[in-house]
Amino acid sequence: MTKTLTTALKQKDLPILIQRDGFVCLYCSDPLGRDYIFDHLDDNRFHNDIENLALAHQSCNIKKASNYDLKIIAQEKIKQNEEMPVKFIEDRTATENLPSEIEINKTLYNFTKKYIYERVNTDGSIPYADALNETVYLCQEKFGHGSEQTIRRYINQLTCGVAEFQIIKDDKDQKQIVKRKLNWKDTRQTYKQFLKCLLDIEDATNEEGKNWINKRGDSFEGDLQFIAVRFVRYYCPLLFTFKLKQAPTQTPVAIYRLLEEYSKLFGKSQTTKKEICDDKFATLHKHTYGK
Ligand SMILES: [Zn+2]
Predict the structure, then answer these.
(1) Do residues 112 and 71 lie in contact, with contact meaning Cβ atoms separated by under 8 Å?
(2) What residues have a C-beta under 5 A from ligand 1, the ion?
(3) Most buried of the four, 42, 146, 176, 207, by CB within 10 Å?
(4) pTM to 2 decimal places
(5) pLDDT digits (tens, 9 = 90+) for 216-236
(6) Domains and CATH numbers, the chain
(7) What is the 26 CA–ligand 1 centroid distance (Å)?
């Protein structure tokens, strides 16, 4: 063989090598990132049989040139590869050790969602291009998977008409991902409920969460947690007991998304105001009045 390893060959061999050895470096066993290379185990770069290839860090590959121990590892690996032909391993691991495509997709999707969620929560928005590039980079580093095309698809899903985020153009005509704005109808409903919650303050001395309210002369000074508890209390049974769902075309009400996110914290009986006052709901309180 007189050809060096072409890009086409690499593309064909990469999934086979990952299946056979995992996405780790042959020499140091650490996970690989973007800097992996195709190591020719016998150091002949024209010998491209799959048995003579393994994935490794570039730095470990360079070290091998002058390191006897690493050369031994390479020789052992050739022997092992020849004894255990790829076809056999492929069949075996396909059903056992390897995460299925579905699992990988789920992991990448969830990671993309979480990353955008955190960035938008912290900064208010994230430029579309940054979201795409950073997520692709982090997915590759973390999981060894996630093409630009795949992540782009996920971001499109996360910003579609019924999703939590939306894409807007800023004054420089750059695409930004932001939290979806509630439409006017939703907003009206939300404020109506919010005002009802405020009425509770009047009687705050006897109410759950009264520690969040201070009376100063004629006015009340209060932590928004007090309102959040009532707000959550109102929407809990709607969602959990009556399973009220919105029409799928409507913009999701923020509180429903929140409650679903925190649904594990709610037992069946845990919908009293007193229980929602509990510290374990503190993050939910914060998110509720943050929206
Ligand atoms: Zn290495």
Answers:
(1) no
(2) 25, 27-28, 57, 60
(3) 146
(4) 0.36
(5) 887 878 888 888 888 888 777
(6) 7-95 (no CATH), 101-179 (1.10.10.10), 184-290 (no CATH)
(7) 7
